[in-house]
């Protein structure tokens, strides 16, 4: 006969193939559609479907009608074999949520982030059927749960996950904290926090030689509340280097103290360590750092300071002034910049003066960290990569982070393999500009170790360089570990006097060398097995999700925009409006507020104006 034949076995005794057409449902139109639905087990009320393709020899005895395309029989033979002629019979189908979620499994995870409308259009195009948005939403939730896991159930497997991670990555740190339980005999414990620091990242950071860590948090988007805390360093190429991460109940002093305690143990930091942290001015992190590392240098993100300042003083003038103060490398330059702020606005000067300059201006930074960072974009960049995992169950979220880190190490290794020269690519490019600028300076040597460096044609830029101590009075060499333009001019002068070979790259700190970069990323993050191969934890209690209070209204998933971002959105809307007017010649009604012709107030027209109503009532109309 030349056509494909299928044997379909139903496991639902209530299903009657004879009455399928009389169910009052929409019949299928084509043979291809029927075949697709039989393959995927989406026939009406069929729980499981066994599909077998029959060869012409196998069906020759059963097939009495040569025009029959399909043979459908019941598994327990309670129904006689029925031959279905597609020209006369159009089988009906009803999509239940469970059955629809099975169909969507084939589209996931590619379609797992699709909205209801996209899935609805996909089903319409593939099967020519109309499914309600409510059915698709429920089916999507069930299909997503099958792929990504159960939000509540994954907490019970969290200890097993940590054991497997430590087994596959020896030396890693994984700590779980639980809520205090009054009943010690209770079989459950409520989850509170988790901290993870992988061994490969820990050892790589210790080889970087740059003692600076950015701290920040971002909120979870799932049904259970929480914050993802991250600790991110800087590598030799001025790229991000994540060190540790965790999930806590909120960004409070207690959770940050708990997180920083384990971070200090992993990085070898004590309470007396002269380390450098950078973060925003979040209320919980400031007292936590002061308590755990009282001698550390704590930098505030200047962008967040400017965001707070904009609440009272807006405009490009104040923006430029605060950044001029922050970028000042010497105390003298800082004082001059602060005087400009005072001339512009005394209240703004008094507000800015309340923030100690050691927290936000380069003029008061130490050079221990070999970094002059003013903004905490380290964590901002890392948190942006975690957006796809923040709405997942806890183990799926943690795996999303670990897999990203594992892939990132491989990507950077490929970049390192293509790099050459003594310095990393970003630093080498930056240093070329420094050397070009150094050609505009002249040097006066005192005969020992000090140099006076002066710009050609101007006497204002004049500094003292001491090569043996690797310092310059402009403080840029001290802050970054990279010779400034004044120092490069002095190194070239040494070459002219036969005191040095003039290779300025060797004066750059080892933290920026290509060899250092290779050592940092020589570490690896090893993969782990799936859940079926995890060894059960021997803890007698079971972890349960944290407390959760359902908020009123639809939960928000987008972050709150800052004031300047909102103003930019308004500008974009205004540009779109002007473009619409220029194209169509008409003013769109959307977003416009009508003006009453009687009272000249906005928000209503003359038909609903209260003044007109009063006049009409007085006239007896």
Automatic annotation (TrEMBL):
One Pfam family here: MULE
Record's keyword terms, sorted: Metal-binding, Zinc, Zinc-finger
Keyword Metal-binding among UniProt keywords: yes
PROSITE patterns: ZF_SWIM
Domain SWIM-type: start-end pairs: 451-495
Stretch list, region Disordered: 552-586
A single MF term (Gene Ontology): zinc ion binding
Protein name: SWIM-type domain-containing protein
Source species: Deinandra increscens subsp. villosa
Lineage per the UniProt record: Eukaryota, Viridiplantae, Streptophyta, Embryophyta, Tracheophyta
